[in-house]
Automatic annotation (TrEMBL):
Belongs to the ATPase B chain family. In plastids the F-type ATPase is also known as CF(1)CF(0). Its main location: membrane. Component of the F(0) channel, it forms part of the peripheral stalk, linking F(1) to F(0). F(1)F(0) ATP synthase produces ATP from ADP in the presence of a proton or sodium gradient. F-type ATPases consist of two structural domains, F(1) containing the extramembraneous catalytic core and F(0) containing the membrane proton channel, linked together by a central stalk and a peripheral stalk. During catalysis, ATP synthesis in the catalytic domain of F(1) is coupled via a rotary mechanism of the central stalk subunits to proton translocation. The chain crosses the membrane at residues 27-45. The keyword Transmembrane helix applies. InterPro entries: ATP_synth_b/b'su_bac/chlpt. GO terms for molecular function: proton-transporting ATP synthase activity, rotational mechanism. It is found in: Membrane; Plastid, Chloroplast thylakoid membrane. One of its GO terms (cellular component) is proton-transporting ATP synthase complex. The gene is atpF. This is ATP synthase subunit b, chloroplastic. F-type ATPases have 2 components, F(1) - the catalytic core - and F(0) - the membrane proton channel. F(1) has five subunits: alpha(3), beta(3), gamma(1), delta(1), epsilon(1). F(0) has four main subunits: a(1), b(1), b'(1) and c(10-14). The alpha and beta chains form an alternating ring which encloses part of the gamma chain. F(1) is attached to F(0) by a central stalk formed by the gamma and epsilon chains, while a peripheral stalk is formed by the delta, b and b' chains. It comes from Arundo donax (Giant reed).
């Protein structure tokens, strides 16, 4: 009895950590609990029956702990299998995403090339159309200039002829032209 009292006196000398709380460290708590249970059973039990029941209790506790460990191991394996399946699915999805991304980039490149080609063709057609329009406008302007030059030349020639010609010269020119036409008729 003196040893038990001595232990409580020894506990009284422990320094306090500031407040009373729960110990959440499972291994330390289980060790303390088992020590207290074994101490109480030995102190109050002092008999073979109590030791057998203690042994039975410890065996039951051991079996529960082992079954809990087995269950935990099975759950861990199942979790690792699910994790591996999830990783495989993730890799597959990443590959598909990369494939879609690459297809999208190549589709964008194709569309860009098509747009550039279509724009180039349109520019060539516009350039050709512009050149044709310029050519026709140039021809039209040249024809207008020719017509005006011709009209001015004809008006100038008529003015010169009208001022220079008199009736006798006029008749002589007509007879010469008729003679030329008659000579051409005979040759045929």
């Amino acid at each position: 009895m003196k040893n038990v009292t001595h232990s409580f006196v020894f506990l009284a000398h422990w320094p306090f950590a500031g407040s009373f709380g729960l110990n959440t460290d499972i291994l330390a708590t289980n060790l303390i609990n088992l020590t207290v249970v074994v101490g109480v059973l030995i102190f109050f039990g002092k008999g073979q029956d109590n030791l057998l029941s203690l042994k039975d209790l410890l065996d039951n506790r051991k079996q529960r702990i082992l079954s809990t460990i087995r269950n935990s191991e099975e759950l861990r394996r199942g979790t690792f299998e699910q994790l591996e399946k999830a990783r495989l699915r993730l890799q597959k999805v990443e590959l598909e995403a990369d494939e879609y991304r690459m297809n999208g980039y190549s589709e964008i490149e194709r569309e860009k090339e098509n747009l550039i080609n279509a724009t180039s063709i349109s520019l060539e057609q516009l350039e050709k159309s512009k050149n044709e329009t310029l050519y026709f406008e140039k021809q039209r302007a040249m024809n207008q200039v020719r017509q005006r030059v011709f009209q001015q030349a004809v008006q100038g020639a008529l003015g010169t002829l009208n001022s220079c010609l008199n009736t006798e010269l006029h008749f002589r020119t007509i007879r010469a032209n008729i003679g030329i036409l008659g000579a051409i008729e005979w040759k045929r």
